[in-house]
């Protein structure tokens, strides 16, 4: 500050004082801000400030001059300081500079100034605005117009470069615009022409270039040391009190543990934003939460018809999700982990990236096929819903094939789902249970035979399972065990479970802070699932807690379990009732199954093993950039 003070004392007419600075990237000093090719402008500042921003941003400003110029224009996204200097100099302010460095300026790829396309487009816009709102001489107006045109050409070049790293971007249109502009540099026009003729070849070459280098402010080529990763999640990863949340937390913990990574997180349509959505110990560079109600049905129907996407996608406000992505992203991501198929389908054109992993936890097409195979025996499988699923089945199959073609890896939760998808870059990442295990309490068979169904009851397969258990299985069970009860535990769905609330032996418990006491006090956890996808975290949770399990074949499919060894498998209502009655009559059988389930969980499905699987997959995909 002493050097700035001395400058202002020597030149009392100055309204702005800046200094030189040392540029630093990843701890390495690259040189100074000002140099032979980018000097500070002592003379003709009115003209020079329209040609380039010669003011380093670390400044001291006279308050009166700042206020007289109107301060910063908050409507400008980039180069707000340059806009202010233009207005101040035009109003008569003078800018001075201390020639020696008084600051360190750290350059990183996620800074606003590193997005060259957005920066140049914003500069061009503010200069065009300057032409209309300031009183410029003919010469000054010519300089401003010329600079704006050059910035527009720079923006066009960098839009093309960014598009080369983004699947589905309009590369040919952008290339044609650059190639047809005679004012563009010859090298840029040749690159654009090559892109137009051989887009795949140029795209590959551009990816290889950007694998190890990125262009910093002013077009400086800088080595790429830190990797940028975006994770989109279909549910909040904390607390881990549900299957989607547990899988989201596992992926996030694994990706956050990658070395030299800047992690951005986007939580989509998981309810109102909360203060702490991330698991303890997970640090994100930036985290955004987007939530909104569904589109009006008429609008969603139009989207379905025009885009040929399932209702689940058509009804979501993806425009809000795309806005959030643009706010997060200042440069291309090295890796994007899409946490659901609909995320990949709806956001692929928005996110600039070099590698893509899609977590297809629920493979929708076999889930719908299983639903359509059910008899129309209840409200959850009524004709209108069946018709909708028949229409959506080919739509989901088309989208799954598209994701398989475009992703670098597709993640499923079992070998069975990998076989269903067929050929392609498919990897298995099992589900896990990541909740706390009780230190002292253990499972004890209750006096009153009690069977607990845990689930999120706005998920249709869980609602169907609950209704099926309460209306078809429980009456048969109570013929054998008159005191038997079923407890439905989990978030949401009270309106959907209205038809079973109040039935003999049925307790609609709803959401609880911790399901552990419910499970430890049960004769068994029941999973009477009749359709759905993925693997059931509720089974893994029971295994981890040492609680016996009764499940349908579909409920435990994809898990490495054996009927009669790790759990009891039964499918129709009579068989399910018989299996539950068997455990109610023989606690020793329950203890044997519970012990085997616990051993299987610790061997194959423990959180540490799953986290390591995700991390290894991400490293292999990222290695393809090197």
UniProtKB/TrEMBL annotation:
Q: Does the keyword Chaperone apply?
A: no
One GO molecular-function annotation for this sequence?
Answer: glycosyltransferase activity
The alphabetical list of record keywords is:
Transferase
Q: Which SUPFAM superfamilies match?
A: Nucleotide-diphospho-sugar transferases, UDP-Glycosyltransferase/glycogen phosphorylase
Where do the TM regions start and end?
Answer: none
What InterPro entries does its record include? Nucleotide-diphossugar_trans
Indicate yes or no for the key word Transferase.
yes
UniProt-listed Pfam families: Glyco_trans_1_4 (PF13692)
Q: What is this protein called?
A: Glycosyltransferase involved in cell wall biosynthesis
Taxonomic source organism: Geodermatophilus tzadiensis
The opening ranks of the lineage are: Bacteria, Bacillati, Actinomycetota, Actinomycetes, Geodermatophilales
């Amino acid at each position: 500050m002493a050097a700035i003070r001395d400058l202002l004392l020597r030149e009392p007419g100055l309204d702005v004082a800046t200094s030189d600075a040392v540029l630093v990237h990843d701890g390495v000093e690259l040189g100074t801000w000002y140099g032979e090719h980018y000097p500070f402008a002592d003379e003709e500042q009115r003209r020079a400030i329209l040609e380039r921003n010669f003011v380093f941003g670390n400044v001291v400003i006279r308050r009166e001059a700042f206020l007289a110029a109107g301060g910063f224009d908050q409507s400008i996204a980039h180069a707000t300081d340059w806009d202010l200097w233009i207005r101040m100099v035009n109003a008569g302010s003078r800018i001075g500079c201390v020639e020696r460095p008084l600051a360190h300026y750290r350059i990183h790829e996620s800074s606003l100034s590193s997005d060259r396309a957005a920066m140049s487009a914003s500069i061009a816009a503010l200069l065009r605005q300057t032409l209309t709102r300031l009183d410029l001489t003919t010469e000054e107006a010519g300089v401003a117009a010329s600079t704006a045109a050059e910035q527009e050409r720079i923006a066009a070049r960098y839009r093309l470069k960014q598009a080369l790293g983004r699947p589905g971007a309009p590369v040919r249109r952008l290339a044609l615009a650059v190639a047809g502009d005679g004012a563009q540099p010859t090298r840029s026009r040749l690159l654009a022409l090559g892109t137009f003729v051989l887009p795949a070849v140029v795209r590959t070459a551009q990816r290889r270039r950007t694998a190890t280098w990125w262009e910093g402010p002013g077009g400086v080529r800088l080595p790429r040391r830190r990797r940028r990763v975006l994770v989109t999640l279909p549910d909040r990863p904390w607390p881990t009190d549900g299957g989607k949340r547990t899988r989201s937390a596992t992926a996030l913990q694994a990706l956050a543990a990658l070395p030299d990574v800047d992690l951005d997180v986007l939580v989509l349509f998981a309810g109102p934003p909360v203060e702490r959505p991330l698991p303890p110990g997970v640090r994100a560079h930036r985290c955004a939460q987007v939530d909104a109600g569904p589109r009006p049905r008429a609008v969603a129907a139009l989207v379905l018809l025009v885009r040929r996407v399932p209702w689940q996608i058509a009804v979501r406000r993806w425009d809000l999700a795309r806005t959030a992505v643009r706010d997060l992203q200042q440069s291309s991501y090295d890796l994007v982990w899409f946490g659901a198929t609909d995320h990949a389908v709806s956001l692929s054109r928005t996110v600039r990236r070099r590698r893509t992993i899609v977590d297809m936890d629920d493979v929708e097409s076999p889930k719908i096929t299983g639903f359509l195979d059910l008899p129309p025996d209840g409200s959850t499988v009524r004709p209108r819903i069946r018709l909708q699923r028949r229409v959506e089945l080919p739509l989901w199959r088309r989208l799954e094939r598209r994701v398989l073609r475009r992703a670098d890896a597709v993640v499923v939760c079992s070998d069975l789902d990998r076989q269903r998808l067929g050929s392609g870059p498919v990897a298995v990442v099992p589900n896990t249970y990541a909740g706390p295990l009780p230190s002292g309490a253990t499972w004890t068979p209750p006096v009153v035979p009690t069977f607990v169904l845990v689930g999120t009851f706005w998920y249709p397969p869980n609602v169907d399972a609950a209704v099926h258990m309460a209306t078809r299985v429980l009456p048969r069970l109570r013929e054998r065990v008159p005191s038997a009860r079923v407890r439905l535990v989990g978030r949401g769905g009270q309106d959907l479970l209205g038809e079973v609330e109040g039935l003999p032996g049925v307790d609609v418990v709803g959401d609880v802070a911790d399901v552990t006491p419910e499970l430890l006090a049960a004769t068994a956890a029941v999973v009477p699932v009749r359709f759905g996808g993925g693997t059931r975290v509720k089974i893994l949770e029971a295994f981890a807690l040492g609680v016996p399990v009764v499940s349908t074949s579909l409920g435990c499919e994809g898990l490495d379990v054996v009927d009669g060894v790790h759990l009891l498998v039964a499918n129709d209502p009579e068989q399910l009732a018989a299996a539950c009655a068997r455990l109610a009559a023989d606690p020793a059988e329950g203890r044997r199954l519970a012990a085997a389930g616990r051993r299987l969980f610790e061997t194959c499905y423990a959180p540490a093993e799953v986290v390591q699987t995700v991390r290894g997959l991400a490293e292999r995909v990222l290695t393809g950039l090197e």
